[in-house]
Amino acid sequence: MNLFDKCYAFQRAHVAKKAGYYPYFIPLDENEGTEASYQGHRLVMIGSNNYLGLTTHPEVKKAAAEAIEQYGSSCTGARFLNGTVALHEELERELADFVNKEAALVFANGYQVNLGVIGSLLGRRDVAIIDHDDHASIIDGCRLSVAEARRFHHNDMDHLEHVIRTCSDKAGKLVIVEGVYSMGGDVASLPEIVSLCKKYDCRLMVDDAHGIGVMGEGRGSAAHFGVSDDVDLIMGTFSKSLASLGGFIAGDAQVIHYIKHFARTMIFSASVTPSNAAAALAAVRIIRQEPERIVRLDEISQRMKNEFTDMGLDVGNTETPIVPIILGDEMATLGMWRALFDAGIFTNAVIPPAVSPNASRLRTSYMATHTDQQLDTVVDTFKEIISRPGGLAASGFS
What we know:
By secondary structure, the chain is of the alpha/beta class. It is 42% helix and 16% strand.
């Protein structure tokens, strides 16, 4: 068999493009935060992870520009060698303090954080215990580590305890969960997870990519539940609330020191650019200075959850700015996405394997900078589309 046969056989995306239902890789002409433009077509953006709207904040843009002036566009090397600048270490100190940990380590992106941390800590005799809905980077990190990986049912504490109890007492055990789950917007049961980890001598890592800037006054899900001291490792990304690109891990200083010297994705990758580091640093400081953004974000999140629920839509168990519209059927999801896009609303169509079979959905997400008028437009557009003749049935609703 020719290696490329599967490439030429893959026609699903081409078929969707020809039919007008391909929702991916849309090259936006402009992206101003709450609005975007595609070929002159204006769209209200409810498909972004820019939860606090900081990508357009003057201080964030200024910090990025000044970093380019001082350091240039790139460090052109790995942190391990020539790729560390003073700005990286300043950012690491700020992040550690922000999430209440001794130390932090910055990586070039969030995916590399999970691969590097899990791969460096876990070996063949260890066990990674992961939630069924954990991000692909966590799954891939477990593969890289060559440790045994065991899954427990999503947010099911009884099943988590069962999985932990079946592990060997001699194995090093790391429980890995997301603080906020990216496709459902629901929150990990951290107090119960912490209790189980203490009971069975497990370490706990929380991927808080979607929790930083959103929960716990912006400090994340562990801070929200008051368990920061009990979570061993807190991971975060810059590409959501921190309005940049990069990621970090925070924990005890000696553990971070070890990861710094053994995480292959950090050692063998070029460092995060100075402009990205500066933007993230500015964003952290703005979160500290402008708590009203988080208050506004929570108000918007609650409003949109209630609006969609009142329409009879299934939003799952969300508690955050991620408000899924769970349709189940894949084609209904793509059809609803297209109708909304044509009507000027940008959402994300999420279909298997990103979610389980029969769990296809529109992933909507909101920003602190959305105006009431923009939200009114979103609500009115949804109502109009699902009220069309055959709208509910065509969209997979009952």
